[in-house]
Write a structure and sequence with these properties.
Blueprint (H helix, E strand, L loop, with lengths): L7 H20 L11 H4 L5 H8 L10 H15 L4 H13 L4 H15 L1 H19 L1
Helix pairs in contact: 4-5, 4-6, 5-7, 6-7
């Protein structure tokens, strides 16, 4: 059996991945082994006023507020699944800071199950519980 992809798209995708890995090694060898795990722990929680100023209605008074934008981001990350765990934690922290309630977070994650499946929803709910428990301490 050969490791060579038979599908032209698969072959192109494999080539793109290889080229990207080689480029990263050339530009910054330390980034070749970079992982996002733990990234959420070193990034500070942005205060709600700053979130609203930059992601809220500051520049678009008729647009979405920061909390809604963060809940939409949470849904997208939930659909991505376990590969987005640090990003889910970080987004959850900021959603809580922006005023999202437990119910709003649960509904956002629950709705994502339609697209992502129950395992992705369960993982995001587990992360949400941990982040909310941490925020309440």
């Amino acid at each position: 059996m050969s490791d060579t992809p038979q599908n032209p798209f698969e072959a192109m995708f494999a080539q793109t991945q290889q080229m990207a890995q080689e480029w990263v090694k050339t530009v910054n060898p330390a980034m070749a082994n970079f992982t996002a795990q733990g990234f959420d722990k070193i990034w500070p929680t942005i205060p709600s006023e700053v979130l609203e100023a930059f992601w809220g209605k500051q520049f678009n008074p008729d647009g979405l507020d920061a909390k809604t934008r963060l809940l939409l981001t949470l849904q997208g990350l939930t659909i991505q699944g376990a590969v987005a765990e640090p990003q889910i934690r970080l987004t959850l922290r900021h959603a809580v800071e922006a005023g999202a309630t437990k119910q709003e977070i649960a509904e956002t994650i629950g709705q994502a199950a339609v697209f992502a499946g129950v395992p992705a929803m369960n993982k995001a709910m587990e992360l949400a519980k941990a982040v909310i428990d941490e925020a309440e301490e």
